[in-house]
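Hello K.,

You asked for the raw outputs rather than the summary table, so here they are, unedited. I folded two proteins back to back in the same session to keep the settings identical. This is the first:
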Amino acid sequence: MKRVLFLFILLFGGESVYPQAKVDTLYYDRFGQIPNNPVFIDYYRIVLSSADSTECRTFRDFYSSGELRRDGRIETVDSLDDNRSVFVGEVISYYKNGNVSEKACYLNGRLEGECFRYREDGFLKEHANYSQGKLSGICERFCEDDGSCRVIEYKDGQPLHDYYLLSDANGNWVKYRIADDTPVWESPLVTERFVDYRDGVPREVYSKNGITISLTCSVVKDYGKWHRIDLAIFNNSRESVTFTPETDIIAYSMDDRNVATDLKVWSCDEYLKKVKRGQAWAAVGMSFAVGLSSTSTSTTTGYDSNGGYFTATTSTYNAGEAQRQRENFDRELEDEKNRKQSGYLKRNTIYPSESIYGFVHITRVKGQRVVFVINIEGAEYIYDWRFDKNGAYPIGN
């Protein structure tokens, strides 16, 4: 008992222990109940009671091995069941290594206001708010492994919504359903779209659901008349997504009377077939041109055996030169096709932290505006561009 009193006086440094003050020592098991046997003692409590019974008492709990477990003020002490004790004001709990495990405030024995909970290594694992002992307001739970944070809003101890927000270390937010932890894919508002520039080229950008999509549009002639869109999709979510351009892009053109015309989004295979047909016709024209350029003509003049004057024209075909020009042309066509094939967006599964880049061709018709709708897991990202024969421009820019 002398050792307990010594620890009490030492650890309550700054507290004045008056002769009339009463010191109580209580013992509890790991369930907060009075132990039936000393071997089951998990912690003990030292309570300082002043002569003024109206004042709250100061207490300190210690692990059975002697380390500080919790301290603060207490209004009512239940010696049989600590779960019925009434704490008041700030109460701080500790791990055996001395690090804080919890900082909480109590009002009439119930949690009130902010509460901070920590891991044994000192990392904050939860920041919650309470009202009358129930979760109320924002509750943040942190994961040390990946730096993510789960946010749930409560009212009267119950989640206010059927989802929670999960953010990563870079501040990307994604909604998940509380019931089954499946993602909630939301379509962004048009006002969430912004324009940035790369080498003077404008790009419309969305960041929503942990997905960032950057789109730029241009008017081109490339084996046809097209709206060419260059897309970059970054997956910063925790889920893999599959993107198929010809089915996940919707496009329509608007004329000066706001009449909409649906536009075809060409798949890579469809576009390459068009390229192949165009190259075939180009090859026919090239063969004719090569034939002409590989034929040399010479003219000979003189007198015949009868003393008459004559002129003779001789045409010579250089087969080797013709073959070389055809081979060079065919090689250029093949290189062109390969470049188009490698840059054209195709069906891709984009895993977390991955991204894809590429272009897609969309049929161009007369009009003033063109709208592209990118669909990712049911969420629609809408892009709106003006265009004329000289180029395309983001709406409002």
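The second followed immediately with the same parameters:
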Amino acid sequence: MHAFPTRPLTALKTVTRRGFARDAFRKAARVVTATIAVTGLTLASMQAHAEDALKFAIAPFLPEAELVEAYTPVAEHISRQIDQPVELQLFPSYLAFWEATRGGSEFDLALDSAPVTDFRIQRQGWRVIARFEGEVTQSLVTHEDDLIFSPDELVNKRVAVQPTPSVSALVLYQLFPNPVKQPKLVFHETNRDVAEAVLNGEVRAAVMPTPLVGGYGELNTVVTTDTLPFLAFSVSPEVHPNTADALESALVSFGQSDKGQEILESNNLTEIVRANDNLYRGHSELLEGTYGY
């Protein structure tokens, strides 16, 4: 099990291609909010945030519909545990997500990769409270009928990837360290789109999270990158300390109840365990060169 559901989905539309311009980052992020209404009595220790729903932001590593399906039960369970409403805050693309993040991360709880998690810790005073257990790598993949044995064979070839600051884009230098021997990047909205681009012959290869590769039997793994800590749950400094503590308790107790364990298993999510800033410290260096960093 892992934090990325493995079943393939029909690809959504492509958003951009090689050389996406900086002005794309400057466009206003169209944030799609899926509200999960959960009622309950307000805890006295949470009066500062009792009247407002907590905004739970998730990086767009999967299509919006799939994130809603997988993480609505997670948000609902958290709401029941802390007696406070929670809203999923989703983004149509990594460009919109990064614009919202570097603009101040105006949400309360976030589930995100190691580099952007550390960015919030270092630049915005966020704090890690939990994480999905394990580590994650990115894989360079091709169609099973197109055997590639080295990244060097893909120089000047079309390779699909999510835009920066997706981890897949941030670690490309590990696969193609020579700046004059690079592939032609083709950018897609989600990792599902990236995989489909390989399967339908649009590109020769793709870079995507390794946990997702197993959901596509026709993909062949060429090489994988170095490991990073898995997705982290972090909390804004604007959240009342009592609420932050309650969120941490709700997250790490998922596996301690039948309902919580059922939610994790039914959505192919790994166990949620305690974590702190130190595990993610330094990984924001991968963002160097990213617009707005």
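The radius of gyration is 19 Å.

Happy to rerun anything if the numbers look odd on your end.

Regards,
P.
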